[in-house]
């Protein structure tokens, strides 16, 4: 993202943006000598696929494809549809109009993860969404609702903790501000007692005459 932004700022066209090479490597600090392969390509069963990948398209553009076309990939297609629909934050029309997707969710080994993903990107209530997945067994629904309650309670707890921290920070800032104002008042009083006029004092302290009057009052 950083490299893309920098190049776009420099006026590079989207089709001409270049990515840096990111090469993974392992630093071995074990006590025994390392006796495995040291060439990355030898760590794979099918090294020729790495070369083929470099020549292949690396973008899967979902928005221009129809759901029926995406769903030809079965469970992989289901994951792609979930990603595509998440930007809308409304899975209900998808579930209403595509019974085959509901069936795939119900039969999937990852149905719990899929449903939690949907609920995490959904504007409607969990009950509304779960009612649309008709054949989801009662045990699974109970499990999902329990997990949602745990997430909700954790969110409330974190919110309370953050509120306390913010309260402490505001208290410190308020104390500093009051201390600052008290210092101003003491300085203003001393200067006035020494015969200075209010406009002169306001000028020295770099505050307005109205602010000076407010501090004294």
Structure in words:
The structure is a single chain. Helix content is 63%, strand content 0%. It has 217 residues and is mostly helical. Helix 9 packs across helix 10 (198-205). The two termini are 55 Å apart.
Give the helix proportion (percent range).
55-70%
Portion in beta strands: under 5%
Shape: extended
Which structural category do the helix and sheet elements fall into? Answer: mainly alpha
Pattern of helices and strands:
HHHHHHHHHHH
Distance between the termini: 55 Å
Low-pLDDT regions: none
Instruction: Please count the helical segments.
Output: 11
Task: Please tell me how large the radius of gyration is.
Answer: 32 Å
Q: Mean pLDDT score, rounded? A: 81
Give me the count of strands.
Answer: 0
Query: Tell me about the biggest sheet?
Result: none
Q: What does the oligomeric state look like here?
A: single chain
């Amino acid at each position: 993202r950083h490299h893309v932004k920098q190049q776009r700022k420099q006026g590079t066209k989207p089709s001409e943006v270049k990515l840096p090479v990111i090469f993974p490597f392992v630093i071995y600090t074990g006590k025994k000598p390392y006796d495995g392969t040291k060439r990355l390509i030898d760590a794979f069963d099918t090294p020729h696929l790495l070369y083929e990948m470099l020549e292949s398209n690396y973008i899967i553009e979902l928005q221009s494809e129809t759901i029926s076309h995406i769903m030809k990939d079965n469970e992989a297609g289901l994951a792609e549809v979930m990603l595509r629909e998440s930007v809308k934050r409304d899975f209900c029309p998808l579930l209403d109009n595509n019974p085959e997707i509901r069936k795939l969710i119900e039969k999937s080994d990852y149905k719990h993860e899929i449903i939690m993903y949907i609920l995490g990107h959904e504007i409607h209530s969990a009950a509304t969404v779960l009612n649309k997945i008709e054949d989801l067994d009662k045990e699974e629904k109970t499990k999902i609702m329990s997990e949602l309650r745990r997430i909700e309670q954790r969110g409330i707890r974190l919110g309370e903790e953050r509120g306390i921290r913010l309260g402490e920070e505001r208290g410190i800032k308020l104390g500093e501000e009051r201390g600052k104002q008290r210092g101003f008042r003491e300085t203003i009083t001393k200067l006035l007692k020494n015969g200075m006029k209010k406009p002169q004092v306001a000028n020295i302290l770099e505050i307005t005459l109205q602010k000076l009057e407010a501090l004294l009052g």
